[in-house]
Amino acid sequence: MRPVKIGLLGLGTVGGGLVKILKEHHDDFVKHQGVDIQLVACSSRKRQSAIDLGVEDVFVETCEEVIDNPEVDIVVELIGGTGVAKDFIIMALEAGKHVVTANKAVMASFGKEVFDAAENHGVSIMFGAAVGGGIPIIGPLKHSLTGNRITSVMGIINGTTNYMLTRMGEDGLDYSEALHEAQRKGFAEANPSADVDGFDAAAKIAILASIAFHCRVTMDQVHTEGITKVTPMDLQFADEMGYTVKLLAIARHSDEGIEVCVHPAMVPMEHPLASVNGVYNAIYVVGDAVGETMFFGQGAGSGPAASAVAGDIIEVAKQLTDDVKVFRGCTCTDDYPIVPIDDLTMQYYIRIPVLDRPGVFAEIANIFAKWQISIKSVVQRGGDGRTTDLVVITHEALEKDIQGSIVDIMDTEVIVSEPQVIRLVD
Ligand SMILES: NC(=O)c1ccc[n+]([C@@H]2O[C@H](COP(=O)([O-])OP(=O)(O)OC[C@H]3O[C@@H](n4cnc5c(N)ncnc54)[C@H](OP(=O)(O)O)[C@@H]3O)[C@@H](O)[C@H]2O)c1
Fold this sequence. Notes:
Number of domains: 3
Bound molecules: NADP nicotinamide-adenine-dinucleotide phosphate
Largest sheet: 11 strands, mixed
Shape: elongated
CATH architecture of the largest domain: 2-Layer Sandwich
Oligomer: single chain
């Protein structure tokens, strides 16, 4: 059996998990998959990482040395970010090496450049760990579900924010308490912006939308809102109304084009995504033939992410072992417009902190009427006698009308603080 030789860049969380899998499962891969995978070179900034992982014998000082090593068939990039990692990916592809990466940042912003390099040099680029960590979602979208026209992909694809929202909903923690707890437990970075501001989820949904709809979507095209304004009060009201609040990444293919956004959403309790709690991720996919499907699992962590990387390595290794060339280029062959969020129609939860006095609701209702927003239900909640919260659920309304109404509401004298708007998703 021809050995398939791996060069590994990055020996951190995922790189370390991969080294462990390659060691522990080497013989299984030979026996069950018919591939003999050998790690022949690796690099990271610190040699100590290689010593700790027991791979010092194949450690080299620079990533260029790994890429230039003529023995290496597959370069595995597990450094992360769009700096040197992107350069190394392109360099490896241009050197005729197959590349496996977990790098969502590069794939969501520079996918075209990466695919062009792969195509021009007749090699594969695999990135199964870039979305959903250990959840197999890219493989099914690219293979098992290709008999469908995918109409929507919707997911909880950031474990940090899902953990925080779960703790805020179940135990009444406020945003900063939930964040500190997540940081203490190692679920959130010291700088949590990528997670709490929604950018991590935006990169991932850009990748999923590109694959599902055969149309390139980049991260900067994703309307992105994070969870920083969500309060325990909103989670409590949601619960009373039969909803839960999740940070959803949503991509839909409609007659108007591609809708793609990340924002907190009220999800009905009976929806499959509503019960996905803690650091878990799930991706809900609807296809015209298959109907509804849902993929669930751990979206991050050494083992889960390395599991996806190993799966990609084995797929490429099988092709090399069997000497079959199954090069699959970029599948983004179509062009659709991105529908601006302003043009979307949804139902809304709007909590309006107002003065508690007669005539206030009439004033607010007049503003909604002016913007053609029809109210489905309204309740008055809590308050101290001086102020209270009006909680309004609308019928379907245009986003731009909702935003217009909020500007008008903010101009009234009865408003106490900025209203909270959360979109309803079914
Ligand atoms: N962690 C997860 O749960 C997870 C899940 C899914 C996908 N991913 C993706 O997997 C990738 C790796 O993430 P990670 O969590 O494993 O990161 P990490 O723990 O920070 O590890 C990064 C590794 O890259 C090395 N490195 C950094 N800059 C380098 C440079 N200029 N030259 C050479 N080596 C360099 C680091 O070396 P030193 O340690 O020696 O400094 C370290 O070994 C990222 O793209 C991430 O988005 C991660």
